[in-house]
Structure formats: structure tokens, C-alpha cells
Design goal:
Largest sheet: 6 strands, antiparallel
Number of helices: 3
Radius of gyration: 27 Å
Order of helices and strands: HEHEEEEEEHEE
Distance between the termini: 22 Å
């Protein structure tokens, strides 16, 4: 009834307020250890083998909103790759240096958590470090083979760089989405076990009254009371 709604809004209202600062959220983020992963792939018919060294860091940014929490998890990273491409009798040694920025939007409303699509921007370059072939011991022939391989590498470099960039973009997005899905599931389980379960046994039903995001804080007001209580306090 309208009387009950008015009592909920103006009399019972909220009795718990929570504020999380932007700086606190960033301090709570875990550090990401550097890692080294093998490279085993095929690009334009060339077998590529090598290793990649990955360094990354996490940040949280807040987007102002009047009725929900809006966060953006950002990963800033660098991938340094040393690899060798094998095509027939020729082996081409290269190094790559790629920087990436991944942004994952998250919205928290009264109804739950919604993960947005991860956007990844990759910027980098690849350098040719050396060419060897099975004919290096042959006078003149070895030099001709290396010259031909160098010219072919230069002609294919723009396309191979686009393929490599797209692979990095896809791998970073998939890894970030998987990590966030897992973290949200774990956090939801802990909330149910440690907070909602005990409150339910006390017949107290926490209700979100309002939520807000500012440039520097996440704000929320709750009513911690059972429906059998006239006032929250």
C-alpha cells in the first residue's frame, strides 16, 4: 500500500552507510607477478617459436553515476618477445615490444553485478635481428637466399604485425574476462556465506536504499532490518 511505501521510504529508510575511496580500492588490488610464456604458433605459413616476457599492473577508475556503482578495471602491460620463424631452409630471428591497455567495465546495481565487454588497445613494433639459412656456407648463394628472405620479410611485415596484434588483443581480453568472472563468483560466494547467511538466521534482510558513484568514491546506503520491524534502528 502507499502507507507502507511511505514508511519504508521516509521512516525506516537506511541505517547503514558505506563509502569506499578510489585510493583504497587501488590499494586493495593484488600485484601481478611478471611471467614468461612460450611462443608456439604459425603465422602466414611460418612456424614461430620463442618466449614472451609479460609485465602488467592493475588500476581501478570510477565513472560518476547517481544510481549504481560504475567501475572500470584497467590493466596496463608490456609484452617483450624473442622469437624465430622457420620457413623452409630459412630462419628469421626477431624481437617484439608491445604495450597494451585493457579496460573492463563493471556495473553493480541493486539487482547484481554486470560485466561489460573488455576493450584492448595494443601498440608495438617488431625488429629483425638476424637471418640464417641452410646455404650460409655456400659462397654467393647464401647471401642471395638471405637477401631474398629479407625482402620477403619486409613485404609481409605489416600483415604479420596485424595478425600478432590481433592475437595479443584476443588473448588479453579472454584472460581478463575469465579472471573477472572467477573473482566475481568467489566474492559472491563469500558474501553469501559470511554476510547474507548469518543475517538471514537473524531474520534481518539487508536492502539497498541507494547507490552512487563519484569521481573519488563508491557510496551505498542500506537498511538492515526485518520486515517485522517498524523502524530500521
Amino acid at each position: 500500500s502507499s502507507v507502507a511505501k511511505s514508511l519504508d521510504t521516509h521512516y525506516r529508510n537506511a541505517n547503514v552507510r558505506m563509502a569506499l575511496s578510489h585510493s583504497m580500492l587501488n590499494r586493495l588490488l593484488p600485484s601481478v607477478d611478471p611471467k614468461t610464456v612460450p611462443v608456439r604458433t604459425t603465422v602466414l605459413g611460418t612456424r614461430v617459436r620463442g618466449i614472451s616476457h609479460i609485465n602488467s599492473d592493475l588500476n581501478v577508475h570510477l565513472t560518476p553515476s547517481q544510481d549504481r556503482w560504475m567501475l572500470q578495471f584497467q590493466t596496463l602491460g608490456n609484452i617483450q618477445t624473442q622469437s624465430t620463424g622457420f620457413n623452409g631452409p630459412v630462419a628469421i630471428r626477431t624481437t617484439g615490444d608491445n604495450e597494451f591497455t585493457a579496460n573492463a567495465p563493471i556495473q553493480v546495481t541493486r539487482d547484481g553485478v554486470e560485466l561489460g565487454d573488455v576493450q584492448v588497445d595494443v601498440r608495438g613494433r617488431t625488429k629483425l635481428r638476424g637471418i640464417r639459412s641452410d646455404y650460409d656456407g655456400w659462397p654467393l648463394v647464401g647471401a642471395l637466399v638471405r637477401s631474398f628472405a629479407s625482402s620477403k620479410y619486409d613485404s609481409m611485415k605489416p600483415k604479420s604485425n596485424r595478425i600478432a596484434t590481433n592475437k595479443i588483443r584476443s588473448q588479453v581480453a579472454d584472460e581478463m574476462e575469465t579472471e573477472l568472472d572467477g573473482k566475481v563468483s568467489v566474492a559472491t560466494g563469500k558474501l553469501s556465506k559470511m554476510v547474507l547467511g548469518p543475517l538471514g538466521k537473524l531474520r534481518l534482510d539487508p536492502q539497498v536504499i541507494d547507490m552512487q558513484t563519484t569521481e573519488s568514491r563508491l557510496l551505498a546506503r542500506y537498511r538492515l532490518a526485518g520486515d517485522w520491524q517498524v523502524a530500521a534502528f
